[in-house]
Amino acid sequence: MRETPNVKLSVILVAHNMHREIPRTLQSLAPDYQVGAEDMDYEVLVVDNGSSQRPDPGFLDTLPGHCRYHYLEDPPPSPAYALNYGMVQSTGEVLCLMIDGAHLLSPGVLSYALAAFRAYPSPVVMTRCFFMGPGDQNDTVLEGYNQQVEDGLMQQINWPEDGYRLFEVGSPQQGHVPKIGWFNRMIESNCLFMRREIFHDIGGANERFDLPGGGFLNLDLYREAAEHPATQVVQLIGEGSFHQFHGGTTTNVSPQERDAKVLGYKAQYEAIRCKEFDVSPKDVQYLGHLPTRHSKIHLRNRGKPNKPIPEDLRAAILGES
Amino acid sequence: MTAPRLSVVVVVYNMGRAAPRSLAALAPAYQQGIEAVDYEIIVVENGSDAPLSPQVLANLAPNIRYFHLQDPPPSPAHAINFGASQARGEVLAVMVDGAHMLTPGVLRYGLDLFDSLANPLVITMAFFLGPGPQFETVFEGYDEAREDQLLADIGWPADGYRLFEIGVPYRIEPGGVRPKLFWFVRQFESNCLFMRKAAFEEIGGCEERFDLPGGGIMLPDLYLRLTELPDSQIVQLLGEASFHQLHGGTSTNVSRADQKAQWQQYLAQYEAVRGKPYRVSQNPIRYYGHMPNEHARQLMLTG
Q: Is A314 in the B-facing interface, judged by CB distances under 8 Å?
């Protein structure tokens, strides 16, 4: 018995000064890494959001046929324009939006996401976000976590031989949530899938989110898609995107600096949407598996000590409804 | 008239109290996201002394087909095979114990993945109604009157997901400890098991040589053989379940010691019939579903 064929998928990856990270990200999207790629029709578009150095032509020559690299000259600092640009250049019926190109994927992300598009009419698929290393990089960077440590971790798991070993060296993004399991409601995803027409209906990525890194752009993108009456929200179980250290705007600064920035992002969201940011109330559907022992993140007991959360941050940051 | 997509086969045996609720929980008025034309409920009365009355059945659901087997063998294997032979749907849901009440999304979620997977085998998780495993609570005073009261307390059937407030997971760890992290625990049978009818026929249906009352290891055997089909894919539902009502069942409402002895008997019969020891399938599991309320979600923490 044949399964329903997959729809065509376009992965849009925004990169900014990520010459170390992008090759690994692309490796994690390669057909010899993603499970079931032989049954998929997909393309990968890297939109380089005006990196200070253009990519090495030698590197561009190594890109496989399903990858295209677009360099934007002097673009706005927010990745919103880059996402919209990628959408225009892409041809897939389904879009996979990776607003931060430093995220590596586990090997089943594409196949499980596409399974959701066969099971539901118009899903908005969320991939859970992990940090490479022993905790949120906002914390671990203060303890010496850096690119060299990260390279060591990648060697330790012999990546990319078995991509699910990323769960051995990565940690679910926690923020102020005491403990993360697969059922915690997400408020954004760095590997977010939706049908092209949904992205179109919600007006694409809202370019008024013009702060470097985009501020709440990614949260807004998810929320708008989730609020679309035609969509179903699906969170993947046992798959993840893993953030490589790259000096990101909010991911690789101290917790205090991050929190201060988040307050600014929140204010901008309120100015643009004329309401406070809140978690989408739409029911969440779950789809996935538990490929390895380390993927059972609910068994990890590395809960952070419960520090009081500033009230005004609570609604914006808490992943649990 | 076009054939329904799904045929639910429910075996009942002297269940005048429990079966009407189980059937009401299968009815289109209760099940969400599915219409009466999408499925049929095949009720197989397995030689009961006190069969269900036609009036009761007529009022429960418009899509019930009722068959009364006279003098059948004691094992429900024959009853399921008979029910499956009557089924018009491409997908079968087998409910070997008609005392199980479903949550309102079981049929919809159970059917969902048949569009996208080659040969899914969908497991609905099982619970006991009441404050603990019924093989313990019946010795502590849990009875039908208390069960009726619990169901009245949650206003059943107004919100079927409130069953999670008054039940405990079926699977009990050694020493009677409730399982932690319940939803991801591997199952080896299900009291509401979905499969393609073609898959059921390919393996020859239920093994009628498992002839102990209640069927013994018949259901784990059926499940195991289905997992051994080359394109089989196990799916465990999240946030949906079946809840067992008291009815003096063969293995559920007896003491723990009796249950252990029974299980040994089941294993011995398995080995006699199959010529090898019983094992639990280790095939990969897919998870699919939702978390309808906080009580269902809490099972990840407390069991």
A: no
Say if the Cβ atoms of A1 and B284 lie within 8 Å.
no
CA closest to A184 among chain B residues: B297
Q: Is B136 helix (H, G, I), strand (E, B) or coil?
A: helix
Q: Which two tokens stand for residue B110?
A: 């159970």
Best probe of the B interface among A35, A282, A290, by most B CBs < 10 A, is A290
- Residues A24-76: tens digit of each pLDDT: 999 999 999 999 999 899 999 999 999 999 988 899 999 988 999 999 999 99
Query: What are the pLDDT digits (tens) for B236-262?
Result: 999 999 999 998 655 556 677 887 888
Rounded to the nearest angstrom, the minimum Cα separation between A303 and chain B is 14
Concatenating the DSSP letter of every residue in A129-158 gives EEEESSS-HHHHGGGT--HHHHHHHHHHTT
Partners of residue A284 in chain B, C-beta under 8 Å = 290-291
Q: Where are the alpha helices (DSSP H) in chain B?
A: 18-24, 54-60, 77-86, 106-112, 134-137, 144-153, 197-202, 218-227, 256-274, 294-302
CB A28 within 8 A of CB A63: no
What string of DSSP letters covers B256-284? HHHHHHHHHHHHHHHHHHHSS--------
Chain B touched by A126 (CB under 8 Å): no
- Distance between start and end Cα atoms, chain B: 45
Compute the radius of gyration of chain B from its Cα atoms. 18
Q: What is the rounded distance in angstroms from the CA atom of residue A103 to the CA atom of residue A98?
A: 8
Q: What region, left, alpha or beta, does residue A13 occupy, with left being phi > 0 and alpha being psi -120 to 50 degrees?
A: beta
Start-to-end Cα distance in chain A: 41
For A233, nearest residue in chain B (alpha carbons): B290
Helices (H), A80-129: 80-89, 109-119
**Residue B182 token pair:** 């319940």
| Interface ipTM above 0.90 | no
Concatenating the DSSP letter of every residue in A174-198 gives -TT-S---TTSPPS--SSEEEEHHH
**Count of residues for chain A?**
321
